[in-house]
Design brief:
By secondary structure, the chain is of the alpha+beta class. It contains 10 helices and 25 strands. It has a domain of 166 residues: EvaA sugar 2,3-dehydratase subunit (Nucleoside Triphosphate Pyrophosphohydrolase), CATH 3.90.79.40. The strands form 4 sheets. Strands 6, 7, 8, 9, 10, 12 and 13 form a 7-stranded mixed sheet that branches. Strands 19, 20, 21, 22, 23, 24 and 25 form a 7-stranded mixed sheet that branches. Strands 2, 3, 4, 5, 11 and 14 form a 6-stranded mixed sheet that branches. It comes from Streptomyces ferrugineus.
C-alpha cells in the first residue's frame, strides 16, 4: 500500500514537504504510538511499501539529488607510500601502525586458532579500534508514512566515493573532534535522544567485519523525531521502500546504513514469534549457543615479524599476494568534518560472495544460516549467510574443503535469484572492498539434494522473522547477514520474502 502526501505545513529546508501526523506545524507534544509491538511493525511495513505516492521524493529525484551532491564537493583519494602518512607511524618495538594521538585505530598483528575448517591456525594484520562508534538514522512520519533521514557521505574506500549513509556515522574519536574538525550534524539526537525530544525505535551494539576488525562494535540506532528538522543539502528524507529500491543498485547504499536498517523491527516477536518456523526460537538459540561454544583463539601480537607477511614501502602483504594487504592513502573531501587527511586502509584481494539460500517449508520461506567463526568477532561466532567467502581464496582447495553450497550459489540460474547486487563494505577502513550479495532459491528437489532439509553441522534453517528478532539484539548476526536482512525487510528481494507478507512467516 502507499499513502498520498497531502498539502500541509512545510518542513524547513525541504521544499514542498508536508508536516507530520496532522498536527499544526508538524510537531507533536508526545509520542502518538507505542515504540514497540505490532503498531510499529505496521508503520515500518507501510514505509517499506511506499516507493511512489507515499513518498515526497520520486526515485529519479533521489538520483538527481545524489548526482548533484557528488558534483557539489571536491573528492580525491590517491595511494601514497607509508612514509608519506601524516600523523601515523610504525611503532618501535612492535611495528604496530598507529596515530600519534593514540586515538582512531591501530593496525596490529593477530594470532588465530580455530576448531575446524581447512585453515586451523594463521597470523594476520588486524585493525584494533576499541572505541564504540555511533551509526544512527533519524525517522520521522510525514502524512502517515515513516521516512528516514539519509546522508550522501564520502568515504575514502568506497569504489565510487559517495554513498547513501546513515544520518550519523561517526567514530568516538571523530565526534570528540580529535581530528580538530567540525561538529557532526544531528549527533545529539542519538547521544541524548530523550533530552532532544526523540524516541528510540531500536538500539543495539553490533559487530563489524570480524575478518579485519578486532572486536569492533558500533551502536546501531534508529530514533524517531517529532519536531521539524531542516536537512542540510547532503541529507534527504526517504521511505524504507525507496531505500529498498536503491539497494538494487550497485554500490549505492553503504554498509553502515544496511547494518542499522537490519535492526528496524519490521516484525515483532509478539506478532510473529516463531510461527511457521521449522525450528522454534528456543531450539534456534540453543543450537547457536552450542555452536558459539566452539574453540576460537584470537590473540593480538606485534605487527613486526608476522609469519608469511612482508612490509614494503607501499604495502604490507602476504608473500603470495592473497587475501588482503595494508596500504595508505591521501584524502581530500570537501563535505567532511576535516577536508584533508592521510590514513592506512585494508585492501582486499578479490571480490567476496555473500548469499542466503532460501527454501520453503510448508509454504513459509526459510534462509539457511551458518554459525561462522571469525577471529575478530567479540564472541568469536555469529550467524552468517549460507555462503560468505572470496571464491578465489578457496580455488586451490579440494571439493570437500571448499565452502559448502558455494557451487549452488555460483551456479544459480536467473530464475532462482531473488536478489543480486554488488555492494561495498565499510569504506572508512577498507579500499574497494566489494561483495556480490545474493538471495537464491534452493534447487528443486531431486535425488542429489544439494541443499538438504536437514542441514549439515554448523548450519540451520531460520525464517526472516526469526532473524529480524535476533537482529534487534547485539552480536547475533554478522554484518553480511544484516545486509541481506535489510534487503528482505526493505522489500528489495520482493514481497514473497518480506517478513510481514503472508509468505514470510505470518498469517
Amino acid at each position: 500500500m502507499s499513502t498520498a502526501v497531502h498539502p500541509g505545513p512545510a518542513v524547513p529546508g525541504v521544499p514542498g514537504v508536508s508536516g507530520t501526523s496532522g498536527v499544526s506545524g508538524g510537531s507533536l507534544p508526545g509520542p502518538p504510538f507505542p515504540d514497540t509491538g505490532p503498531a510499529l511493525a505496521q508503520r515500518l511495513a507501510r514505509s517499506a511499501a511506499a516507493t511512489g505516492s507515499g513518498a515526497f521524493l520520486r526515485t529519479d529525484e533521489i538520483s538527481d539529488w545524489f548526482e548533484e551532491r557528488r558534483n557539489a564537493h571536491h573528492f580525491a583519494v590517491r595511494r601514497i607510500p607509508f612514509a608519506d602518512l601524516r600523523g601515523w607511524s610504525f611503532r618501535p618495538g612492535t611495528g604496530n601502525l598507529g596515530h600519534d594521538s593514540g586515538r582512531f585505530f591501530t593496525v596490529e598483528g593477530l594470532r588465530v586458532g580455530v576448531d575446524g575448517g581447512p585453515y586451523r591456525s594463521w597470523r594476520q594484520p588486524i585493525i584494533h579500534q576499541p572505541e564504540v562508534g555511533v551509526l544512527g538514522i533519524l525517522a520521522k512520519e510525514f502524512d502517515g508514512v515513516l521516512h528516514f533521514l539519509m546522508q550522501a557521505k564520502m568515504e575514502p574506500g568506497n569504489p565510487n566515493l559517495l554513498q547513501l549513509s546513515p544520518t550519523v556515522q561517526a567514530t568516538r574519536s571523530n565526534y570528540l573532534k580529535v581530528h580538530g574538525g567540525a561538529d557532526v550534524p544531528y549527533l545529539d539526537r542519538f547521544l541524548e535522544p530523550e533530552r532532544t525530544g526523540g524516541r528510540v525505535l531500536c538500539d543495539a551494539l553490533q559487530s563489524e567485519h570480524g575478518a579485519w576488525f578486532f572486536r569492533k562494535s558500533n551502536r546501531n540506532m534508529i530514533v524517531e523525531v517529532f519536531d521539524d528538522i531542516a536537512p542540510h543539502d547532503d541529507f534527504r528524507w526517504l521511505t524504507l521502500g525507496q531505500i529498498g529500491e536503491l539497494l538494487r543498485r550497485e554500490n549505492l547504499v553503504n554498509m553502515d546504513a544496511r547494518s542499522v536498517l537490519a535492526g528496524a523491527p519490521v516484525t515483532h516477536p509478539e506478532d510473529l514469534a516463531d510461527r511457521g518456523a521449522v525450528r522454534s526460537d528456543t531450539h534456534l538459540l540453543s543450537w547457536f549457543a552450542a555452536e558459539r561454544s566452539a574453540y576460537v583463539l584470537a590473540e593480538r601480537v606485534p605487527l613486526d615479524g608476522l609469519d608469511g607477511w612482508r612490509r614494503g614501502p607501499w604495502h604490507l602483504e602476504r608473500h603470495d599476494g592473497r587475501f588482503f594487504r595494508v596500504m595508505a592513502v591521501a584524502v581530500e573531501a570537501g563535505s567532511r568534518e576535516v577536508t584533508g587527511w592521510t590514513q592506512p586502509l585494508i585492501e582486499p584481494v578479490g571480490r567476496g560472495v555473500a548469499a542466503f539460500v532460501v527454501r520453503r517449508f510448508h509454504g513459509v520461506p526459510h534462509v539457511l544460516v551458518q554459525a561462522r567463526a571469525e577471529a575478530g568477532l567479540c564472541h568469536g561466532v555469529e550467524l552468517a549467510p549460507t555462503v560468505q567467502c572470496v571464491p578465489e581464496n578457496h580455488a586451490q582447495l579440494s571439493v570437500a574443503d571448499r565452502p559448502p553450497f558455494l557451487d549452488v550459489v555460483l551456479g544459480a540460474t536467473p530464475d532462482r535469484i531473488a536478489y543480486e547486487a554488488v555492494l561495498s563494505e565499510e569504506g572508512g577502513r577498507f579500499l574497494d572492498a566489494e561483495s556480490r550479495y545474493l538471495i537464491v532459491e534452493a534447487p528443486a528437489d531431486d535425488d542429489r539434494r544439494p541443499v538438504p532439509d536437514v542441514p549439515p553441522p554448523g548450519y540451520q534453517w531460520a525464517t526472516p522473522a526469526q532473524l529480524g528478532s535476533l537482529a534487534r539484539h547485539g552480536y547475533y548476526l554478522n554484518v553480511q547477514a544484516r545486509t541481506l536482512l535489510s534487503v528482505i525487510g526493505s522489500g528489495a528481494a520482493g514481497p514473497a520474502l518480506n517478513p510481514r507478507s503472508p509468505y514470510g512467516g505470518t498469517s
